[in-house]
Structure formats: C-alpha cells, structure tokens
Design goal:
The protein is mainly alpha-helical. It has one domain. Helices cover 64% and strands 1% of the residues. The chain has 18 helices and 2 strands. A two-stranded antiparallel sheet has the order 1-2.
Length: 444
C-alpha cells in the first residue's frame, strides 16, 4: 500500500460513504430513497469539489442532504490526507514517518518538519475565510430570507466557494444576482483564495508579519509564490477582457446589461471558469468563442496545493516558458532568475499528456453514446468534470447513465490527479541500474 494508493483509495472510501448517506430517505426532500446513480454522482461531485449535478441540490435534497453535501465538499476540499492528519491531531496520536511522507507528497513539500503545524494552519485558514464570508453574506441573504435560511445559505455557499465546489442551492445558480456587488466580490474572492493554494496564502501571511516586525529585513518570496500569483493575475485579466468582448453583443448573455453589469458578469465567469462552477449567465447560451475561452481557462485551472482543479497554473507556466526557451535557442528554462529542474519539466509534460489523453478518451466514449448533443457540448462537459470546475451547458442531467458514469470517473481522475493515479496503479518507481547511450531524433 503505497502513499499514492492510500490517497486514491481514501477518496473512493469518502465517496462511497457519501453515496450511502445521500441514498437514505432523510437526505431527500420527498422522503423517498434516492437513486443510487444520483447519490453516487452527487457524492463524487461534492468530494471532488466539482459542482456538476444531475438534479437540483436546493430542491431535491433535504436540509440533512444538503448538510451531507457541504461536509463532503469540506472533506474533499481539504483533501483526504489533511482530514486524516487532522483526525490524528485531535486524537493526540503521534506522526510516524509514513504519515509525514504522505503529507510531503500531498503538498509537494521538500522537507518533513512542521507537518503538524502545516495542517493546523490549513484548517485555520479555511475556517477564517469561510466564517468571515458567512458573516458578510448573512445580512445580504437576510434581505430576502429569514435569519435561519439566510445563515444556512451564507454558510453553504461560503464553504462551496472557498473549496471551489460550485454547488449552489438556487435553481438558476447566481444568475439572479448577476448585478450584485456582494456576490461578485465576496464569492469571487473566496474562489480565488481557495484556488490559489494554501502555501501561497501562508507565505503572504509571513511576508505581512515580517513587514511590520522587521522592516529592514528583506523577505524573498519563493518561486512557487511568484509563478502562481503572477499567472493567476494574468489569467484573471485575460479571461475578463476576452469574455467581455466576445459576449458583449450576445443578447442571450450580457448584451442587455449595462456596462457595469457586463463587466461584473465577465469578471465572475473569468474567476469561476478556472476553479468553481458558479455562474451569473446562462452558459448554454454563450457564443462558441466564449465556450472555447472558458474551456481553455478550465483546463489550466488553479494553483497547486489549493482546492481548485485543472492541470494547474504552474504546469501551464513551465510549459509556456519551455516553449519560449526553445524558440530562443536556450537549453535551460528560467523563471524569475531560477532554473527549472528537468524532472519538473518532465512531470509537467506528463500531466499535460495524461490530461489530454483522458479528456479525448472520455469525449469519444460519450460521443458514441449520445446523439442529441454536439461535440462542443460534450467536450465542455468532460473538461469541466476533469478540471473539477462544474460549469455545464445544461446537458448533465440529460446524459445517459453510462455517460454519467464516465463523467464520474473524470471527476475522480481530475481530483486525485493523473500522475498520482498512475503512480497508484503502477506502484513506486524503481531506481534505474542501467544508463543507456543518448541518440537524437527528429522532433517537430
């Protein structure tokens, strides 16, 4: 039982527990037994923090069902190893070397010290963001609902947003709130900070403390921080401007809005396209150009170590920098005056290659079974599932049971990661005892 297998099987175990709970009569608003496929799909979508649904969560599930979904989102967002380690801390059990190695692999840490404090910091960050947003949203929802309903709506959507799940309790998601500054700012910020990665947030906090305690001491940000923050800002700006211009004259989305609301809609969809499945416009009525832009943003995804999905912004940045290095005739990849190691470049290539193969295979499988939907709709659904985004053109519930099972598998692969899943299947790599001679071949 390798560490990668432990993580993969841990997610499966949580999904199965969630499926059983969501199948019970007290989880549905009708009081009847839930469909096993609906329960499995919803549990997988919640644990994998995706947000795709075959039913409306707000009307199909009871309060207890919605509570189970929220708890599954929280567990899925924090990750199996984080929850397992937190349980050990609460039980006051000591960490063994295996547990520290698992944390190291889960968060890609180069050292083993401070694992306990790291988990505590992650849980603290999560609670601070979620509770702060909840208290801000309670008065907002309180304008339309009573205090109990407003509190539940605020808490559920705060947890869903920070964990980049995209689950909403409103039938039209956030389309009714497309002009609301509170929703477009608070929910968007939760998604951004949840998807940017815990290590980036912790590093920013350390810089902030250092800034006030010792102003004379320089604080050197890590390469991960610089790459994640700069690439995230670039993608947010690019996505907002691109969606604003391609949807500007679309009467089915933002053409009828004033300038402010158009910009807010473009901003919100730029944020959620890379990580969470909320929407303030009808995705199914977007232009082809808009759908292609969103698919690209979904594929790139969020930062590593966060609650978002996709191939990660660091992978995207490494490959784009590698391409630039080749065009410039250089033999090394440099980012912010730091050379990127060859094994990291190979890992980025493996992530992209494995992701593309998985998306193509799933799209072909669904296309052979579904004749009522075009290729763009199917490809959009598959990328959304793989990138654990949760946006949909509206075809999720209309897919056949087999196609929904394919989407379930894609959500799971996207959450655990292609490389981690392959490592779980193949096993730990064995050291090479033979070095072979090099030989060139034609490329490109």
């Amino acid at each position: 039982m390798t560490i990668s297998r432990t993580v993969c099987l841990g997610f499966i175990a949580v999904i199965l527990v969630g499926t059983i709970l969501l199948e019970l009569p007290f989880s549905t608003s009708s009081g009847n037994w839930n469909s096993p496929l609906v329960a499995l799909f919803t549990s997988t979508s919640a644990v994998c923090v995706t947000g795709l649904n075959v039913v409306d969560p707000g009307s199909h599930f009871s309060f207890f069902g919605q509570l189970i979904i929220m708890l599954l989102i929280q567990v899925g967002g924090l990750g199996y190893m984080t929850m397992n380690t937190l349980l050990m801390i609460l039980l006051r059990r000591k960490f063994d070397l295996r547990q520290k190695l698992a944390i190291q692999e889960s968060f890609d840490r180069p050292f083993l010290q401070g694992s306990r404090n790291l988990i505590k910091s992650i849980v603290a960050i999560t609670l601070i963001f979620e509770l702060t947003a909840t208290f801000i949203l309670i008065p907002f929802f309180g304008q339309q609902y009573n205090f109990r309903q407003a509190t539940w709506l605020a808490l559920f959507h705060s947890v869903s947003a920070f964990n980049n799940a995209g689950f909403g309790l409103f039938k039209d998601n956030f389309i009714s709130y497309n002009s609301s500054i509170v929703i477009n700012i608070v929910i968007a910020l939760l998604i951004i900070f949840g998807g940017i990665g815990y290590q980036v947030i912790i590093e920013f906090y350390l810089w902030f403390i250092n800034r006030f305690k010792d102003k004379r001491r320089n604080f050197d940000f890590s390469l991960n921080y610089k790459v994640v923050v700069s690439t995230t800002i670039f993608l947010l700006i690019f996505g907002t401007l691109a969606l604003f211009f391609v949807e500007y004259h679309n009467p089915d989305t933002i053409a009828g809005m004033n300038f402010k609301d158009k910009f807010l809609a473009a901003w919100f969809q730029s944020v959620v396209s890379r990580t969470a499945g909320f929407n303030t416009i009808d995705i199914g009525k977007m232009t082809l150009e808009g759908l292609l832009i969103i698919m690209g943003l979904m594929f790139v995804g969020a930062g590593p170590g966060g609650t978002g999905g996709g191939v990660k912004v660091t992978t995207f940045r490494i490959l784009s920098s590698s391409t630039r290095a080749v065009l410039q005739g250089k033999e090394e990849v440099v980012l912010y005056q730091r050379e990127v190691p060859i094994p990291l470049i190979l890992k980025a290539i493996a992530v992209i290659f494995g992701s593309v193969i998985a998306i193509i295979a799933a799209s072909l499988a669904i296309s052979m079974m579904e004749n009522d939907f075009n290729g763009i709709q199917i490809l959009f659904e598959v990328i959304s599932a793989f990138a654990t985004v949760g946006l949909s053109t509206g075809i999720t519930g209309a897919l056949s049971p087999i196609s929904q099972l394919v989407i379930i598998v894609m959500m799971y692969i996207g959450r655990v990661g292609v490389v981690l899943l392959m490592a779980a299947i193949v096993g730990d790599p064995k050291p090479n005892v033979i070095n072979f001679p090099e030989e060139n071949l034609l490329v490109g």
